[in-house]
Structure formats: structure tokens, C-alpha cells
Design a protein that fits this description.
By secondary structure, the chain is α/β, with parallel strands linked by helices. It has one domain (3-222): Alpha/Beta hydrolase fold, catalytic domain (Rossmann fold, 3-Layer(aba) Sandwich), CATH 3.40.50.1820. Helix content is 38%, strand content 25%. The protein contains seven helices and eight strands, in the order βββαβααβαβαβαβα. Strands 1-2-4-3-5-6-7-8 form an eight-stranded mixed beta sheet, sandwiched between helices. Helix 5 links the parallel strand 6 and strand 7. The protein starts with a strand and ends with a helix.
Length: 226
Amino acid sequence: MAGFETVTVGGKPVRLYEAGSVSHGAPGVVLLHAWWGLNDDVVAYAERLATAGFAVLAPDLFNGQVASTVEDADRLSSASNDAATGSIVLAAVDLLAERLGPGPKLAALGFSFGAAWAIWTPNKRDRIAASVVYYGTWVDDKLLAASHVPVLGHFAENDPYETAETVDAFEKGLRAAGREATIYRYPGTGHWFAEPSKDAYRAEAAELAFDRTVTFLRHQLTAPAG
């Protein structure tokens, strides 16, 4: 059933948002929020993916806390524990895989803070067949070489958090590892350009990025092997 639910991870309650029909064999997406927390933008994005035919689980990585200012968001992300966050992400992957059954493929999709986890997750779960990142990277040759799943990246033209040099290094690292990498840069945009509640939101770029994401996910998750 779509909506919010609470599960137990490591003996602690964790909130999740579910969208789409997980009982009908749809391909799955684990959606990982930005440093704002599991806010309305994430829920709306999950619903759009569900409408496009995907089963979605979006875990709350900040224990119900949602930030509205950069200062509060920075505090939330800085206070997060990597081990605990990783456990929540993997629990969401495992739960979605269980609900979908053995057939459908899964992807990890993350915004900013969540993007790093979307890159990390395929190294821990073979069920993940693709990663999608919005203005977030993980530049580590060893980590990038530990997985072979394709990556789709959406990045802003003017971004102090993910500079052009960082994005170039990320793309270079993926290609050096033999990974399929499709990297888009959106002119006239800044960080958070795909999040409607933010001043940086740019509708045209956000819609193009969403369309490209759906096309990529359909190809990677539903195309026959070989």
C-alpha cells in the first residue's frame, strides 16, 4: 500500500515512503533524499516515478527530521552516522527486493547527499542494476571500480558543492573503471535545480532530467539481458 510506513532497522524504527505497485513485478527504485530529509519534493518525485511504472521505496535517513534552511540541512547531514545510514539504505533495498520477488531489477537514485549512497549501494547489493545521481558524486577510484552498473548523472552548470572539476573527475573515474557513464550538465542551473520547493528550481531542466531518468531506468531495468 502506497504511503508512509515504519519498519525496524537495527532495532530502531525507520520511516519509509512507498509508491507504486510493488506486488505486480514492476522494476524497483530505492530513492535517497538530499540533505533536506524526506520532504515533500522526495514524495512527489516518488509518485512521479510510480506513475511512470516503477515501484519506489524512499527511506528516511534522518529519523523524521526535515530541514528548510541550508544551515539546518548541513547540521542534519553532518550529524548523520555513516554506518547507520548505510544500514537503512541496504534495508530499503532488501525490503523492496523482497516485496517485488526474485525477478525485477532495482536501481538506486539519489539527490545530492543521497547521490553518494546511490553510488555506494551497488557495491553492497548485486540486485542493484543501475545508479542515478542528481548533483552528487563520489570520487574514489577503488569504490567506483568495485561495481560495474551503469550510472546516469545530472549536474548543474554553476554548483559550488559539485564543481565542474569534481564532476569531470567523477566521470573520468567511472570510465577508467570500465563503467557505462552518461553525464548531463544543465546550462543556467545551480545545485537543487530539480527540487520544486527550492529557489534554485528550474522547471525546464528538471523536466528534461526526469524524462532522461525514466528512459534510462526503463532501458536498464526492463531491457532483456544480452
